[in-house]
Amino acid sequence: MTKAKARRSLDLIKKLEGLPSLDLRYVDTDFPEIKEPMTKLIRLARFMDTHIITSDINRIQQASIEGVRIINIHMLSNALKPITQAGESITIKIQRYGKEARQGVGYLEDGTMVVVNGGAEFIGETVKAYVLSVKHTSSGRMIFCNAAEEGCLMSEHDFPSSPQDLEAHKNFLAL
CA–CA distance from 123 to each of 89, 95, 128 (Å)? Predict the structure, then answer.
């Protein structure tokens, strides 16, 4: 497993090397008195007065104690995802059934899961859906929608804009 991670990391580094705007440098500095690799990395970051980007959430606390700024790549990714709001229409390909009856699930290009009420009958198809709510979780976010079937569900102009209007259409909401 460690070899597979190392191989993926090297592949990623080769891709990063191809970006001319990225100032990527190799450093051979070693700290032989330190055995732990993460501790060596933190010491190197302090030595070079630089930051660390990581996907390993467990190491963040150790580095912050030593005064090195850590950027969590998962948090950065979530922060850069486009904001979706209730009432907005999206186009989504329904890929599988959801947990509840008549639900379909699709994914945005950034990997965000989209649960579509009434989407189960459209598996394999691309549908227009209206956003009901967005739930933020520790692993990202989920978008809940209603499928927009011609003549069956409300149109973009009919979507409720106030909490009172939402109450009138609660049979469309995923609760």
Answer: 19, 5, 13
- In angstroms, the CA 24 to CA 13 distance is 9
- Residue 172: CB atoms within 10 A of its CB come to 17
Q: What type of residue is 5?
A: K
Beta bridge partners of 143: 114, 134
Note the pLDDT tens digit of each residue in 62-105.
Answer: 666 677 888 787 777 777 777 778 888 889 999 999 998 899 99
Q: Where are the beta strands (DSSP E) in 73-159?
A: 89-93, 96-97, 103-107, 113-117, 126-137, 140-147
Closest CA to 46 of 33, 32, 65: 65
Question: In this structure, what token pair is assigned to residue 45?
Answer: 């970051």
pTM value?
0.49
Residue 149 and residue 125 in contact, taking contact as beta carbons nearer than 8 Å: no
The C-alpha atoms of residue 44 and residue 108 are separated, in whole angstroms, by 38
How far apart CA 28 and CA 70 sit, in angstroms, is 21
CB atoms within 10 A of CB 170: 9
